Amino acid sequence: MSEASARTSRIEKILREFHEDASFGKAYDLRLLRRLWQFVYPHRRLLYWSLILGVVTVGFGLVRPLLMQWTIDSGVLAKDANVLLVGAASFAGVTLIEQLLTVVRTLATQRLGAVAVSDLRSHVFAFLHRLRLGYFDGQPVGRLVTRVTNDTDALMELASSGVLNIATDLLKLIGIVVLMLTLDWQLSIVAFLAVPPVMILVQVVRRYHREAFREIRAKTSRMNANMNEQVSGMPVVQAFSRQEAAAEDFDKINQAFREANIRSIKYDAMQDAAIDTVTAICVAFILLALGFHPVSFGVLVAFIAYVREFFEPISLLAQRYTILQSSMAGAERIFALLEVKEFDAPETTPAADSPGDTVISLEGVDFSYKPGVPVLHDVSLFARRGEKIALVGPTGSGKTTIASLLLRLYDVQAGVVRVNGRDVKSFSRDELRRHFAAVPQDVFLFPGTVADNIAAGEKPDLERVEEVLLRISALELFKDRPEGLLANVEERGSNFSAGERQLIAFARALYRDAPVLILDEATASIDSDTEAHLQTALNELMKDRTAIIIAHRLSTIQAADRIIVLHKGRVAEQGTHEALLAGQGLYAKLHALHFSRPR
User: Fold this and answer.
1) Residue 155 near residue 75, CB atoms below 8 Å
2) How many other CB atoms are there within 10 angstroms of residue 372's CB atom?
3) Which of 81, 379, 422, 523 could form a disulfide with 531 if both were Cys (CB 3.0 to 4.6 A apart)?
4) What is the secondary structure of 186-251 as a DSSP string?
5) pTM score
6) Which H or E element spans position 361?
7) What is the CA 128 to chain-centroid distance, rounded?
8) Phi, psi for 112 (deg, rounded to 5)
9) What is the C-alpha to C-alpha distance for residues 382 and 548, in angstroms, rounded to an integer?
10) Inter-CA distances, 374 with 215, 370, 382, 400, 416, Å
């Protein structure tokens, strides 16, 4: 193998391991079912009704062949019209009642599955919001989407029909065995000789079935991840003419997904065909046995009906097992996710704020996103109440990381981060983040209205929304749009300009009214003219607040009370703009480089 081919294989292996889940070992089905029970239990009345209706339905189904036997032997052979009339009416009535009960039972079981899986899906969705940000750094979005959608859909089949139908199928099988033995035990022995081959077949096929469904789940996850990446990166794909390469990558994933499905379908087809063949052979042997063991015509008809119904639940049990395999593959992945312990700012015992003028501080902080790749080294800094602190430095120096540590999106490996004199680990998540309002460089707008986005998670108070927009001189801008503050925001705010999105972010921070403001490259994605128009909003936003300003444009932070210069994860120097220029250090070099560029 050439070096280029080896390199390509290594890259494909890395991508496959990143996008697909690891294969699970032995599945503890009973353990998974016990965990699913917590979502079924609140709706147990539907479960009980389904079970009761299932037992009654099975009873009516078992009676039908007996009615056929009685009608043939006592009516047809005896030429008794009354018996024929009663038998036919009874058979039709039993069948009608059985079907009506089946409809009611199906509705109950499907509703049970829908509500139970809806609860599970909500639980998984809420669980994802509790995980720390670092967990998502190593997870493809498509994989997590698969957990909440495809995997829970597979479990719906299990909750709505799989387990309950397995129980009724087993009950029906037992009832058929008892009635067959009652009708004629010798013919029953002939019929039961076909059971061992069927059981061996099911045992062999199910082993491959589970692996096929695991493979389908893994390929579904990888396909969703790839689709998410391609749609999100469409501007880059088109700008660099990567359409053919993207299509080739997707074709490989799609082909692997197709092959996994074909394997599953092949096992299903083999299993169904084999069971039908065994059923036919069994009937042939019974007909052959009649030459040595004659029975009445009614008994023969009833017995053959029971033989066909005997193999029907066996076939259905095999199909239920298919559903069970698919559901267990989904359950394995869902509960593997729910076992993740990387929680975002877990609840802790509250502590009182320490009095003092220092609002935030980092003391000897070391941090790295990945082991062995340090980002911050022994960083110490602080900000007093009402102070405007600027963080500057080359890309990768750790500016944004400091903001993430203050919000406790990540935990430090050494040192301590304090807010109002308290270790951030002593805060609950909500309590800590109420101290901060953040304005990021890339403003994310949620689908909804302008007012919804400014309220950001709270029910919008339109008077308060108007007030904050007025304070940043943006009220007329948004009220002049069709529908005003109730104007629809499309996905990612694509129907708003960069400046308008930034104003919404400023209004969002002002609406939050937190004592500490974090401006993370808040004006880096807009041009200088637009930035000048936003300066009024910035000034209003920072009024009477402690502010942490992260900026590449040094012109935006010259008025800061103190500038902290970071270099390679360390505090290189700090002071006012004038003092740092006079010191002829790193800041002075960055300043000279910045203003020497063509404007």
Assistant:
1) no
2) 5
3) 523
4) HHHHHHHTTHHHHHHHHHHHHHHHHHHHHHHHHHHHHHHHHHHHHHHTHHHHHHTT-HHHHHHHHH
5) 0.67
6) strand 358-370
7) 8
8) -60, -45
9) 10
10) 37, 8, 21, 14, 16
Determine the residue type at 364.
G
- H runs (alpha helix) in 407-514: 429-433, 450-455, 462-471, 475-479, 498-512
Q: What is the distance, to the nearest Å, from the Cα of residue 507 to the centroid of all Cα atoms in its chain?
A: 31
**∠ CA 432-434-438, rounded to 5°:** 100
The single-letter code of the amino acid at 94 is V
- According to DSSP, the β-strands at 448-449 and 488-489 are antiparallel
> End-to-end distance of the chain based on CA atoms, in angstroms?
52
Tokens of 291: 């030459």
Closest CA to 63 of 71, 52, 74: 71
Q: Which helix (H) or strand (E) holds 257?
A: helix 243-289
Crossing angle, helix 462-471 and helix 498-512, to 10 degrees? 110
Tokens of 544: 């009477």
Q: Which of 586, 38, 64 is nearest to 335 (CA)?
A: 38
Q: Give residue 46's identity as a one-letter amino acid code.
A: L
- If one counts every other C-beta atom within 10 angstroms of the C-beta of residue 490, the result is 10
The structure tokens listed for 563 are 């500038």
Tokens of residue 337, six digits = 């996710």
Per-residue pLDDT of the chain (599 residues; tens, 9 = 90+): 455 455 445 444 444 444 445 444 444 467 777 888 888 889 889 888 988 998 999 999 899 998 988 888 888 777 788 888 998 899 999 999 999 999 999 888 888 888 888 888 888 888 888 887 777 777 777 677 777 877 787 777 676 656 677 788 888 889 988 998 888 888 888 888 877 877 777 677 767 776 777 777 778 777 877 777 777 777 667 766 778 888 888 888 888 888 888 888 887 777 777 777 777 888 888 888 877 877 888 888 888 888 888 877 776 776 676 667 667 777 788 888 888 887 766 555 555 555 568 899 999 999 998 888 889 999 999 999 989 999 988 888 888 899 889 988 888 999 999 998 889 888 887 888 888 988 887 788 887 888 888 887 678 888 888 888 888 888 888 888 888 888 888 877 778 887 888 888 888 888 888 899 998 876 655 556 556 666 777 777 788 889 998 876 676 687 888 999 998 889 999 998 888 888 888 888 887 876 665 54
Instruction: Give the residue from 108, 100, 116, 141 showing the smallest Cα distance to 35.
Output: 116
